[in-house]
């Protein structure tokens, strides 16, 4: 049986905005090990469920979907946002 991971979409590290960080994502854990393709050397696998990523508006909606479909799941808590309050004058202390 596939194990699903439910987590809050993280903030993009390359941008300062927090667009689309309120949604929750559900994706599947890798069921089998990857192997090197003998021809090209790329990492491959026969598992296609790790390519599926679903978006939900709330945590409760994602959990309800996993329970309705009979999936084993675990919820990864969103990290606490820490505000770094800083003034321009702090550069000269």
Describe the protein's architecture and organization:
The chain has a single domain (3-92), classed as Double Stranded RNA Binding Domain (2-Layer Sandwich), CATH 3.30.160. The mean pLDDT is 88. It is α+β, with helices and mostly antiparallel strands and 93 residues long. A hairpin with a 6-residue loop joins β3 (35-36) and β4 (43-44). The chain is built from 1 helix and 6 strands, in the order βββββαβ. The strands form 2 sheets. A 4-stranded mixed beta sheet has the order 5-2-1-6, covered by helices on one side.
Reported by name, the CATH topology is Double Stranded RNA Binding Domain
Strand order of the largest sheet: 5-2-1-6
- Report the uncertain regions: none
**Which class do the helix and strand fractions yield?**
alpha+beta
How far apart are the first and last residues' alpha carbons, in Å? 58 Å
Q: Tell me how many strands there are.
A: 6
Main beta-sheet annotation: 4 strands, mixed
Q: Which percent band covers the strand fraction?
A: 25-35%
User: What's the level 1 CATH class?
Assistant: Alpha Beta
Named at the architecture level, the CATH assignment is: 2-Layer Sandwich
Name the helix and strand elements from N-terminus to C-terminus, one letter apiece. Answer: EEEEEHE
How many domains? The number is 1
- Overall mean confidence score, pLDDT: 88
Rg, alpha carbons? 19 Å
* Large-scale geometry: flat
Q: Roughly what percent helix?
A: 10-25%
State the helix count: 1
């Amino acid at each position: 049986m596939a194990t699903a991971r439910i987590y809050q979409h993280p903030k993009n590290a390359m941008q300062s905005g927090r667009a689309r960080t309120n949604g929750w994502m559900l994706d599947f854990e890798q069921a089998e090990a990857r192997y090197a393709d003998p021809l090209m050397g790329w990492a491959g696998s026969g598992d296609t469920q790790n390519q599926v990523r679903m978006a939900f508006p709330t945590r409760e909606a994602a959990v309800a979907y996993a329970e309705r479909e009979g999936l084993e799941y675990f919820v990864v808590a969103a990290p606490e946002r820490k505000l770094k309050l800083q003034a321009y004058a702090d550069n000269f202390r």
